[in-house]
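Example 3.2
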Amino acid sequence: MDQRSKHKAIRGVAWTSAANWGCQLLSFGVFACLARLLNPHAFGIVALAGVYVAFIQILVTQGFGSAIVQRSALEEEHLDSAFWIAMATAAIFCVLSIALSDFIAHLFKQPEIAPVIRWLSFSIPFYALSSVPSAILTRNLDFRALAVRSLAATSAGGAVGVSMAFFGCGVWSLVGQQLVSACLSTICLWSTVLWRPRLRISKQHMRDLYGFSLGVAGNDILWFFSQKSDQTVVGYFFGASGLGPYALASKLTTLAYEGVAGPFSSVAFPAFSKLQSKPLEFEKALHKFCEMLTFLCLPLFVGLAAVAPELVPLLFGSKWVAAVPLLQVLSYYGALRVILVFVNPFMLAKGRAGLYLLMNVTLTILTFAGCLVAARWSPEAVAISVAASLFAFSAIFVTVASRFLQLKALPLMRSFAFPMFCSFVMLVAVTGIRSLVVGKLAPVAVVLICVLTGALCYLSLAYLLRPDLVKAIYGMIRGSLLPSSWRKSTDPSRIEDDLERVAVASTEL
């Protein structure tokens, strides 16, 4: 990758990180307020309807965004065709969703979700409107515009949701939040992108896109079922009241995952795609990506599991205590997701959407079968089955990728070794401190002491054993986020040198 592309990728991580953390902090604040104002049953109703709408979103976008990003030669006709096909599909599914809302509610034995589905169906056209502009910005590594859009949409949606909840709108506050967020997000995108669609659809250009996008869409559908099987099964077998705590625990781990892993994942696909013809640079970038990502993410999930018993009642109130064991299990599941986050950009950048589809079939079967079996017991058993399924999938993937994609498993495993070691030591330290202070101090004091102990332990150990890694990450963030007048000695070439050393070191662990 040339110096300009490298610097754009680094700034992409920085901007996406800023946006994601800003959005996740805003979302978390909004979520905490809504959780205190609403009961678990309301969250369960919207979570169940949201599963359906999220599935329709995949059918509407059809993988066109990834196909636009991946294509080496892109023409205006590709963009126009993708846009109008997505809009036509969105219109059809919007009408169908409204018409079938009562049937879906009857299927899940939850009549309350019918009107919720009808109103959330109006968000479907916004997904179609956003798909092509978002792909254009991602292809150009213009993550600043995406960052501004995310922050604006999250802020406006959160303000509307909390206001409605405060005035007693109940479940409709969650619906209003999602609709306003989708609408403003679309407006921000279109005000940023110069491209405007022409009224034309080219069969040839659609065939060009579908050659890649259908595989991506199939993967997205399978990934959806592997990620949403648990909530669907919990909602069906345990109702909205059972799904409420599960949805809260899942939401917390999702916020943590998207806040740290999301920026790296967003940048990885376009960055890896530019290296698909350079295998040595590709492998080096992969190892660098995995080590930095796990170094930043693993302690967050491990720490979340450790302080969950005090954190959940403190933030959301005693009515959410049932979410504590669910959050602990799903936090370790989130840690495993972080380790495997490279799978999607790796296989798509390699152009192996078909093989990735087969791998997702495997994951979906494992996850859904495990959830159905675990539903005989409790929502906690469902959460455990999801984590176990992902662990089994990781072993299968490494075996397949080593054989068919020339993935060198041992160097890749080495890139995870140091962050995992530091996280384990941190967990031991936090668990020990917590056992000494729990019951003797207020919950807020327990959480603060555990967080400070964990951060101090993790960073001290990392700086002692791998100062190159710590300095490289600091240099990347400082050189990418701060204005040029503040950077002093940190310049793009210096950052690149640090990152190159990290890549070399990750293969020599």
